Amino acid sequence: MKIQTQIPVTAYKAAGFIGKYQQLVRDAVIPYQHSVLWDKAPDAEKSHVAANFINAGKALRGEDTADGFYGMVFQDSDAAKWLEAAAYSLAAKPDDALEKQADELIDLIAAAQDKDGYLNTYFTIKDTDKRWTNLLEGHELYCSGHMIEAACAYYEATGKRKLLDVASKNAECIYDRFITQNVKGWPGHPEIELALLKLYRLTGNEHFLELCRRFIDERGTDPSFYAQEAERRNWTVWGSNPWDNDYRQSGKPVREQSAATGHAVRAVYLYTGMADLASETGDSKLFEACRRLWDNIVHNKMYITGGIGSTVMGEAFTVDYDLPPDTAYSETCASIGLMFFAGRMLENEVNGEYGDIMELAFYNTVLAGMQLDGKRFFYVNPLEVDPGISGTACTHTHTLPVRPKWYACACCPPNVARLIGSIGKYAYGESADTAYCHMFAAGSVSFSNGLKLECTTDYPYDMTVKYAVSGNGRLAVRIPKWSKSCTITVNGSAFSQTPENGYVYINVENKADVQFIFDGTPLFVRASCRVPRLVGMTALMRGPLVYCFEGADNGSVRDLRIDRSSVPTVCDFDPDFLGGTVKLKVKAQRITDCGELYSSEQEQSTPCEAAAVPYCTWGNRGENEMRVWMNVCNTKETLNKSSNSLQNVV
Amino acid sequence: MKIQTQIPVTAYKAAGFIGKYQQLVRDAVIPYQHSVLWDKAPDAEKSHVAANFINAGKALRGEDTADGFYGMVFQDSDAAKWLEAAAYSLAAKPDDALEKQADELIDLIAAAQDKDGYLNTYFTIKDTDKRWTNLLEGHELYCSGHMIEAACAYYEATGKRKLLDVASKNAECIYDRFITQNVKGWPGHPEIELALLKLYRLTGNEHFLELCRRFIDERGTDPSFYAQEAERRNWTVWGSNPWDNDYRQSGKPVREQSAATGHAVRAVYLYTGMADLASETGDSKLFEACRRLWDNIVHNKMYITGGIGSTVMGEAFTVDYDLPPDTAYSETCASIGLMFFAGRMLENEVNGEYGDIMELAFYNTVLAGMQLDGKRFFYVNPLEVDPGISGTACTHTHTLPVRPKWYACACCPPNVARLIGSIGKYAYGESADTAYCHMFAAGSVSFSNGLKLECTTDYPYDMTVKYAVSGNGRLAVRIPKWSKSCTITVNGSAFSQTPENGYVYINVENKADVQFIFDGTPLFVRASCRVPRLVGMTALMRGPLVYCFEGADNGSVRDLRIDRSSVPTVCDFDPDFLGGTVKLKVKAQRITDCGELYSSEQEQSTPCEAAAVPYCTWGNRGENEMRVWMNVCNTKETLNKSSNSLQNVV
Fold first, then answer.
1. Chain B contact set for A388 (CB, 8 A)
2. What residue segments make up the domains of chain B, in order of their start?
3. From A439's CA, which of A639, B30, B218, B427 has a CA 20 to 30 Å away?
């Protein structure tokens, strides 16, 4: 039923910009996170992740568990996400030592699995009677989902079955409870839905498709479910309100939902599973719901950086057009989940918008989540930082001006690692006769339809993307919406085609050299008047990169008023600046009298040049001001005059 | 020691704008609130205030208290604030029925007083053993403070002593505990400090001065005090954190404090007591602390509307320059408290800034708190309302787009009523030989120094203020900072004087007719670049009135860009518009394409005229958009060119 599918992780070998990030993950993130799992990282909070699995194994064998369980109820998922990231790293570059570390952890996990397939250290060490009594908060299905994803990745990367067998047995245990015994319930934190579909595709076991469908079909059919569940038990993890169905997208059946609500990560994980199931089964009602939810996010609730979830209160979506830059939550994991969602939507419908959003989220919020040295991470990605307020005022304690050390709740760092390691699955796709290029990722790809390609590009800093394609079929390449023009050559000759839903299709017989030159002219971007917080302001983009203005380059950023009538200067790529990047310069006015709190005196200003850097590089030079959305000094802009229409891309 | 003092409430008879508001309080607010106290208002939540006093009396007599205590721990203060407002109303206009209602309530209060003078229905009905065990949350001293204020007002207005005797006995009971028995402690919610000074001045009883000084001197000397208190008891009202000293201004001794912190109402009530004590005793260290706190509020933490307290989290101050317009808390009571503080600062130092802020808070936030019909009230006074977000998004549930019905926690409505009833105390002051005019309030004043004046003005809509003065001495009139020029005539002749600390002084022998014409040219006002949320925006003021743009006059307000280079039009006073007001019109551009969430297309706009109304009248025409701070379409403004200097006022 799928229009096109993701490629196996082994099919893409990264180079260029992506290759550099994969190497950073391999060299910095994975080893550091391994030391965290084993509580050997000197500057991180205790995680106890490996120790929890050791103790769960002991508990099953009736041995003394010594220091018991420690951490969040979903602590196991850190091990799973690390294994998934390690698997992708092994797929890209074999590493005996890393594989040994992974196998060692897998042995512990296998030993912590109960004989019926149940797998969760919290409920195995602490109180086996509490199993399955708290779907609202217990995260058992969430942790199982991540372990299933890790198992699929590790099998895909290494061919080793041990974790896949553990995960399958665990999934059968869940199947037994919810299908065979027909116990009512669905996950408080969606995640297992998308994982079960991966497991189904890899194993062919129809149980896993059936279980996924059950969780998705039953969700929200009874808004009192969590409250009834809460009444039946005498314990709680956090005292969560079981009636807050919006928070966990369970207020009505998923096919009736239209507005993205609640915890943003839960939302996009759920929608990912829904979109995946829709493409797997050809369920058009389910796809329509996905499309409504996608539209609601992308056209009403998304930051220009591809960030989602406007508020720290529940790490959640709020209402349409509520997009405060300074108090944004915009969790790194939520943008990763948005990429997941976009990727699965592409399996239902080839449409350039999904790739547009995928690369927007990736190059901006996801990459901003990680420090350039791979050692520190943002969970929260504000679009404005005001030292003295950000991270300080009680309303801004979540918007830290610099990336903090590894948290005890380590959801984002390993999520960034596994996303970067598997980026080929989002950049490329395939159908029986077509190789799809959704994002512009340098490296080589071998499609199972026989097509191969070598992509050469310095994207996102250079706008030339070359494909050396071999095989027979079609090359389908997304033309980004931001590119106001596009020059295409095929084997050196000009090529012209009106894009179809954002893609051009080029027939390949045996071999073809294809080149795209996108329009890298910086663009001033404005928000709809419906967004109260962004009224009258401008952002600056070049290609997929959102730029920001930092104090390190500009002194006070709040004093600047950008001249939208000027044409920004694109500086040369500087390999020594912020890990290698391209700076933009724009004409501006600097307000020179900022004294009194309120003044009716005429504002004094002096012309100046303001420098902008990619948002994904912000916060790497210590605490300073940062703004994506800037005030302007001239609204009669003459820039951006060329048509945005892509009807005549040549 | 006082430089100048407030006048008795009976000394000022209001006319004009103030008179109209006093009549509204008399006709609408006081009767309605009386029905609330007695649970006879059909559309209000149950208050049980009178019933609590009845039941407390029964409890003391050993009778069955039937329905016991109901309401907040500080429910008694509603009765006190109503009595105070009723007293001021009686001072302005005798009313037998109202006086009978007041006397009836006073009888209940007297009957609810324990034989040792203790007076609090919560602790008398519910559990006498809990008395004085929870200064952190119990509000006993707060309720006593309000009752003392009511007693002073009722005695001042009617000459009746019964409530004054009750309050004095209650104050002696408190004196006995904290001074005679030397029990350590200070109020969790400051208020009694300023009340004790009123009582001291009226009775001459030095105990009350001593007790006030004790509470102020001891406050913050031991940051562990509330925590120790909490350890000694086994009950709580709200589970408040006893270590959050910033919230209740008790982290360090008051003379060492420099930053306004915590709950804004508590803060300004405390600072009012401090300033009052400083002027009473000539305590220069205490005054210096007041001046630092004043400066911190007025120059770093105050909205342009005279609103204070930026966040709903604790109804509190946050950090310097954190002044979000859309999520502002800006409680009506806090601006009333700011006026109290300003009034007491004037007793230490005659300085125009205090009057500037006093009238800013009064004409904007305080009056905005009340619907034009006197029937509904805002507690929260945002500077921006965006329907769909305001009152709806989880971060904006407190910023209601229209005034709600009377709350169970009815702090603001009676506070507005008592402030308006006693506005003469803030508008006018006196010293041995001088009549001070701090605000421009139509009506007649008889000063105890023998001077009398009749003030005739249609202020704040007309900028001409006439004084007919009789007696011998000086007339001191504040020249508002916003008035860029001022024409003064004395007995028809031009008068010129360089203002001294914002005041001009005119000698009066026998009789004088003095006229001031202030500059009512509308002014565009900008905020300091240090305020992140107000960067590049403009507000519009005329005289003391901040204007706002509402949907009712403009359609979508977010589409408008104000042309700061234009000169606003001052419309004629319209007696039928918003209770009688003056509208302003300004040139603007209207953005006509607000479609996509983000767009790089050039903005389309069309010239238009935008209408602004006084902020104090907003929200009287149903739910609609409202903005004080507007975006601009031309920053090269030429308005406001005239000097703001008042060195040469003529």
1. 319-321
2. 431-518, 523-634
3. A639
Catalytic residue among B152, B333, B411, B616: B411
pLDDT tens, residue by residue, A99-129: 999 999 999 999 999 999 999 999 999 888 9
> What pLDDT score does A29 carry?
94
User: For A125-139, how does the pLDDT look when each residue is reduced to its tens digit (9 = 90+)?
Assistant: 988 899 999 999 999
Whether residue B641 and residue A298 make contact (CB cut-off 8 A), yes or no, is no
Helices A96-111 and A140-158: crossing angle in degrees, nearest 10, is 140
Q: Is residue B408 classed as helix, strand or coil in its secondary structure?
A: coil
A273 vs A254: CA distance, rounded Å: 11
Out of B315, B331, B359, B625, the active site residue is B315
Q: Which residues of B touch A296 (CB under 8 A)?
A: none
Q: Which class is B431-518 in CATH?
A: mainly beta
B368 Cβ contact list (under 8 Å, min separation 6):
B305, B332, B378, B381, B615, B616, B617, B618, B619
Q: Which of A50-59, A635-644, B612-621 has the lowest mean pLDDT?
A: A635-644
Task: Give the mutation candidate from B529, B542, B561, B637 for the A interface (greatest A CB count, under 10 A).
Answer: B529
DSSP state of B575: T
Distances (CA, A) of B450 to A4, A165, B6, B9, B474: 94, 99, 15, 16, 11
Q: How far apart are CA B106 and CA B161, in angstroms?
A: 11
Is A254 in contact with A286 (CB distance < 8 Å)? yes
Mean of all residue pLDDT scores within chain B: 94
CA A192 – CA A141 distance, rounded (Å): 6
Report yes or no: B89 and B30 within 8 Å, Cβ to Cβ.
Answer: yes
Q: Is B411 a catalytic residue?
A: yes
- What are the pLDDT digits (tens) for B22-58? 999 999 999 999 999 999 988 778 899 999 999 999 9
Structure tokens at A74: 């979903």
Q: Is B635's pLDDT higher than 80?
A: no
Cα four-point dihedral sign A150, A152, A158, A161: positive
Interface test with A, best of B542, B597, B608 (most A CBs within 10 A): B597
- The neighbouring-strand residues paired with B525 are B539
**Out of A299, A558, A599, whose CB is closest to B535?**
A558
Residues B141, B143, B149, CA angle at the centre, nearest 5°? 100
In 3D, which of B525, B528, B524, B529 has the Cα closest to residue B566? B524
Instruction: Pick B594's closest partner by Cβ from A524, A529, A631.
Output: A529
Contacts of A395 in chain B (CB under 8 A): 310-311, 313, 318, 322, 324, 327
The whole-angstrom separation of Cα B352 and Cα A175 is 77
Where would I find the H helices in B312-403? 332-345, 352-360, 367-368
Give the number of other Cβ atoms within 10 Å of residue A238's Cβ: 9
pTM for the structure as a whole: 0.94
A320 to chain B: which residues are within 8 Å by CB?
388
DSSP-assigned states of every residue in B485-518: -EEEEETTEE-----BTTEEEEEEEEEEEEEEEE
Summarised one tens digit per residue, pLDDT across range A479-511 is 999 999 999 999 999 999 999 999 999 999 999
* pLDDT of amino acid A208: 98
User: Whose CA is closest to A444, among A419, A418, A470, A464?
Assistant: A470
Considering the four listed CATH numbers 3.30.70, 1.10.1750, 3.80.10, 2.60.420, the one that applies to the domain covering A426-518 is: 2.60.420
Examine the pLDDT at A647 and tell me if it is beyond 80: no
Neighbours of A181 (CB within 10 A): 8
Instruction: Give the integer Cα–Cα distance in Å for B386 and B556.
Output: 10
